[in-house]
Structures are given as structure tokens and as C-alpha cells.
Amino acid sequence: MKILSYYPKTGDAKRDQMICKILETLDAREQRLITSKRIKYLRENDDDVFFGVHDIKQESYVGSTDSKYWYRCMSRDQFLHLLSKDSMDFTAEKDYGGVACNYSYSADPKYFGAKKSGRYIVEFEFPNTLSDFLSQVGKQRGIANLEKRGKGEGGRAWSLGFATSGNCHEAMNDFNNGLEKNIIGWRLVQCRYPKPSGSKRK
């Protein structure tokens, strides 16, 4: 299992072998990402193994669009599209396509829990704030107050949606252009993979 040499050992032989089995199921792009120095083994439960970073920029609630960092929990297909294309495939969605202003909301079990499709949490970084970005888009497109369309999520987060039924769907292409041109940065901050057979707790 040569691939294990690329991942820092945890000091637990059984755990290291489990991580190796997980890595072998990934394509080369995802392997390189998960074996990068900043992504670490975090924890595991009965079903999943979690990897991520220790320096999440904005974990707690911010009650407006005046935030530089935004988060999205996404499925494997959505994440692999982002990884390969540097853009989000919002056109395939018929729902909200949201980003939230804090990590803790995106990591809620409602989205990132067991048996949910969300397996990756991505942190997006805007040049200044998302509000500034949307204000510029609004001026360019002649849309007044685009930056004020944020939706409160029960006092737990502030969100904006870029998919077809989202409250900022007009900015979908601008958001993706920003990603493709590296004006908007992104990084994986947490992910979870199913435990390989034979690794689950009895």
C-alpha cells in the first residue's frame, strides 16, 4: 500500500491502514488534495472517517452579508465538479444552491449528517466581502439591492442562494466567473468518507 507513504501516519497502525483503503478509492486529484499537508485526519464514528483543517476562518454566526468567508456543504458530484472545473454546477440544481456565512451552519447534521448526501464542506473567500461582490454585480447588471437579499436562517446563519430558485440566482455566472479567474478563492475544510468494510465498529 504505497499510497500511505504520502499521508502523515497517525501513530495507530489499524487507523493508518483504514486511511490507506479510503485513499485508494479516490481519483488522483482528490488523493493529492487529501494527502496535502494541511488536510488532517480529524475523527471517526461508526460509519464515517472525517478529514479537514484546524484553521476554519469563520465558525460562528455573522448576521449579514458583510462577511469575507462563506461555506457550502456539497455532495461528492458537486465537489468533484468544483475540483476539476473551478466552478459550481448550480445549473444542475432545482433548489436554492446556498452558501452560508458560517461553518457551523453548513456542518449541521441536517446537511453534513449520517446518511445525508453532503460529504464535503468548502470555504469560499471573497476579495472583500460577499456584500461588496454582489453590490458590484448588481451595478453591472442594473439590479438594485442585490447585496441585501440575504436570508436569515433562524438566527443561526445568513445565507444566499445561487441556483435557479435562489435569491441571488442572477449572480450565478458571476460567482462562477470569480471562481474560474481565482478572484474568489476556495478550499476544502472538512470531508467525510464511509468506513471501509471491516473497519466499522462492532
Protein architecture, described:
Strand 1 and strand 2 form a beta hairpin. The mean pLDDT is 89. The protein folds into two domains: 53 residues, no CATH class; 123 residues, no CATH class. Helices cover 29% and strands 20% of the residues. It has a five-stranded antiparallel beta sheet. The protein has a three-stranded antiparallel beta sheet with strand order 4-7-6. It is α+β, with helices and mostly antiparallel strands. The radius of gyration is 18 Å and the shape is elongated. The longest helix is centred in the N-terminal third of the chain and has 12 residues.
Structural class assignment: alpha+beta
Terminal-residue CA separation: 25 Å
Number of domains: 2
What order do the helices and strands follow?
HHEEEHEHHEHEEHE
How many β-strand stretches?
8
What's the story with the biggest beta sheet?
A: 5 strands, antiparallel
Mean pLDDT: 89
Give the assembly state of these chains. Answer: single chain
In percent terms, what proportion of residues is strand?
A: 15-25%
Strand order of the largest sheet: 1-2-8-5-3
Which bin fits the share of residues in helices?
A: 25-40%
